[in-house]
Design brief:
The complex is a heterodimer of chains A (90) and B (422). Chain A contains 2 helices and 6 strands; from the N terminus they run E-E-E-H-E-E-E-H. Chain A starts with a strand and ends with a helix. Chain A has a single domain, classed as Folate-binding fold. The longest helix of chain A has 9 residues. Chain A is 18% helix and 38% strand. With 422 residues, chain B is an alpha/beta fold. In chain B, strands 1, 2, 8, 9, 10, 11, 17 and 18 form an 8-stranded mixed β-sheet that branches. The longest helix of chain B has 16 residues. Classes of the chains: A alpha+beta (90), B alpha/beta (422). The interface between A and B is medium-sized, with 25 and 26 residues.
Chain lengths: 90, 422
C-alpha cells in the first residue's frame, strides 16, 4: 500500500487522496506560449523511472493539495510538502 | 536458412517422436548478437516478435534481430488477460482491430503453432437503458464496418448467461448487452513462443538477456544500438517496449505522450466449466473469462497513478473482487490463486502510436494502454510494413505520434487527456 505522510493528518493510505499528476509541467502564460509549448504541456510526459514530483489532494482528510516526491520504481515517498508553500516559494 | 521439415509440428511428427523417442528440437535458437542487421527491434515481447516474423514472412527481410532485456514471454505478453475482440466504435480503431481479429483466426495455421484461439464470444453488459442505447450505437458501427454484432435484451441475456445476478436486489440491474461471437481468448504464452519460433525458422536472431543502453547516431540519424552485449549496427531501428517506452525513447532524446501505469490481473482456483464467454461488466472496468484449466481470469482498472513497480496496490484487489461478486454472487467463496501486475503505456487519448518518429531512421510502437495483446498480429503486420517501406501502413496512419498537433486524437472512451483516468 502506498502511504502518504500528510503534513496535517499524518500517514494515510493513498485511497484517501486524489492523484493530480506530474507537478513539473508548468502551464504557459495566458495568451503566451507557442502551439508546441501548449502541446507539450497538455500531452507530453517526462514519465521517469525514479524520483517524480506530483500533486495529490487529501480529499478525505484536510483537503490540502500536496506536492509529493515519489520514486516510481519502488513507490517510496521521498518528500511531502504543502503545494501552496512550494508554489509561493517559486 | 530454412530448417528441415522434421521441425514442423503435425500429427505425423507427434507420432514419429512418440515412436522414435527422439528429443524435440528447441523452439528457437539461442542467438548470439552479430555486428549488424537490416532491422534491429528493441523489445522481444509479442509485438516485437510479430514484427520480426512479418518482416521475414511478408517482406523477405530476414536479416533481423530482436533484442530482449529479459526472456521471451517475461513482459506484458505473459501478463495480460488473453482477450481478443474487435468491438470498437472510433474510425481507425474499428478497422485496425478487425484486421487483427482476422489475423488471429488464421494464426495457428500461419505459425504452425497452436495458439489455442477460442472464439467463445464476448458480451459487454448494459446496466441501464442509456447504456444499452450506446451499445446499440457501437453495434451499428460494427455492422457498418462488416463486423458481426448482436444486441441482446434482458431475456436473451438470461438464456445466454444464466449465472449472473438477475435478482431484484442486484446492485447493478442487467438490461442487456452487446455480443460479438467471434471474440474470445488466446493462450498468450503460445503467441510469444509461436511468433518466436516462426521468426527464428525464417532466420531472425532472437537475442535474450540483451539490454539496450543507448542509440548510435550519425548526423542525427540512428544507425545502431548500444547494448549490454556490445554495439550492433542497424539499417533501421524499432522500439517496441511497452511499459518502458518513455525510458527507451529518452535514450534517443525523445519525450513521448505516454505515462507508465500498473494494471493488475487475477486468477482463481480452478473450477468446473462455468463461464463459457468473455464478460465485460458495464458498471466499472471489469472483465472475466475462464481459462482452459478452469481458473476464472479477471482484471480491472489501472491503479490510478504512474508507476514502474509491477506490484499492485491492495485497494484495487478489493474493487475487482467487489465487481466480481456484484456480477456473479455465486463465485464469492472462490479463492484467488494468483494475482500479478504489468506496466502498460497510457496515452492521453487511450490510443497507441505506431510509425516514424522525429528522429531519422528510428521507428516507434508504443502507447497500447489496455489493448496491446489483442493488437499483436495487426501491429506486427503493419509495423513490419512500415519498417520495410519507410512509410506507415494505411491502417496505422491514424496512430501517428504527432496527431495531437492536428487535433486528431482517437478518444475511444471520451475521457480527455488524463492518462491515469483512461
Amino acid at each position: 500500500m502506498l502511504i502518504i505522510p500528510c503534513p496535517d493528518c499524518g500517514a494515510r493510505d493513498y485511497t484517501e487522496f486524489r492523484y493530480g499528476g506530474d507537478a513539473n509541467r508548468s502551464r504557459p502564460a495566458h495568451g503566451g506560449g507557442s502551439r508546441e509549448d501548449w502541446h507539450d504541456h497538455v500531452f507530453v510526459f517526462d514519465n521517469p523511472k525514479g524520483p517524480h514530483r506530483e500533486y495529490w489532494q487529501h480529499v478525505l482528510g484536510c483537503r490540502e493539495w500536496l506536492l509529493v516526491e515519489r520514486d516510481t520504481a519502488s513507490n517510496t515517498v521521498i518528500a511531502v510538502h504543502r503545494a501552496r508553500d512550494r508554489e509561493m516559494a517559486r | 536458412m530454412l530448417r528441415p521439415m522434421s521441425d514442423s509440428y503435425s500429427a505425423l511428427a507427434l507420432a514419429r517422436h512418440a515412436i522414435t523417442r527422439s528429443p524435440w528440437p528447441a523452439a528457437w535458437r539461442k542467438a548470439e548478437p552479430r555486428k549488424g542487421y537490416d532491422v534491429v527491434i528493441v523489445g522481444g515481447g509479442g509485438h516485437g516478435l510479430a514484427t520480426a516474423y512479418y518482416l521475414a514472412a511478408n517482406h523477405g527481410i530476414r536479416n533481423v534481430a530482436v533484442l530482449e532485456r529479459g526472456y521471451v514471454g517475461s513482459g506484458n505478453v505473459g501478463r495480460n488477460t488473453t482477450l481478443v475482440r474487435s468491438n470498437y466504435q472510433t474510425d481507425g480503431n474499428t478497422q485496425f482491430f478487425e484486421f487483427s481479429l482476422k489475423l488471429w483466426e488464421g494464426l495457428s495455421h500461419a505459425l504452425n503453432y497452436n495458439v489455442m484461439l477460442s472464439q467463445r464470444g464476448q458480451v459487454v453488459l448494459a446496466h441501464g437503458p442509456g447504456q444499452l442505447d450506446s451499445l446499440a450505437r457501437k453495434g451499428n458501427t460494427m455492422l457498418l464496418n462488416g463486423i458481426e454484432a448482436e444486441l441482446l435484451d434482458r431475456a436473451q441475456l438470461m438464456r445466454l448467461l444464466p449465472y449472473l445476478d438477475y435478482s431484484p436486489r442486484a446492485r447493478f440491474p442487467l438490461y442487456g448487452g452487446l455480443l460479438q461471437r467471434r471474440a474470445g481468448t488466446v493462450r498468450h504464452d503460445a503467441v510469444a513462443w509461436g511468433y518466436a519460433r516462426a521468426a527464428d525458422r525464417l532466420g531472425v536472431d532472437i537475442i535474450e538477456n540483451c539490454d539496450v543502453t543507448g542509440f548510435v547516431t550519425e548526423g542525427g540519424r540512428v544507425t545502431g544500438v548500444r547494448t549490454s552485449r556490445g554495439e550492433i549496427s542497424a539499417g533501421r531501428t524499432a522500439i517496441s517496449v511497452a511499459g518502458h517506452s518513455s525510458e527507451v525513447a529518452r535514450l534517443a532524446g525523445l519525450r513521448l505522450p505516454v505515462e507508465s501505469h500498473l494494471l493488475q490481473a487475477f486468477v482463481t482456483e480452478p473450477v468446473k466449466p462455468l463461464v463459457d464467454h468473455v464478460i465485460s461488466f458495464g458498471a466499472e472496468l471489469f472483465y472475466i473469462s475462464q481459462s482452459d484449466r478452469g481458473g476464472l481470469v479477471f482484471g480491472g482498472h489501472i491503479d490510478g497513478f504512474n508507476s514502474y513497480t509491477q506490484r499492485g496496490q491492495f485497494p484495487k484487489v478489493q474493487t475487482v473482487a467487489e465487481c466480481a461478486v456484484a456480477l456473479m454472487p455465486a463465485i464469492s467463496r472462490l479463492r484467488i490463486l494468483r494475482h500479478w501486475g504489468g506496466i502498460q503505456d497510457m496515452t492521453p487519448d487511450g490510443s497507441p502510436f505506431i510509425g516514424r518518429t522525429p528522429v531519422d531512421n528510428l521507428y516507434l510502437n508504443a502507447g497500447w494502454c489496455y489493448q496491446g495483446f489483442k493488437a499483436t498480429p495487426a501491429t506486427g503486420w503493419c509495423f513490419a510494413h512500415t519498417l520495410a517501406q519507410g512509410e506507415e501502413h494505411p491502417l496505422i496512419r491514424c496512430f501517428s505520434l504527432d496527431r495531437f498537433h492536428h487535433g486528431d486524437g482517437l478518444d475511444e472512451y471520451g475521457l480527455g487527456n488524463w492518462t491515469w483516468k483512461q
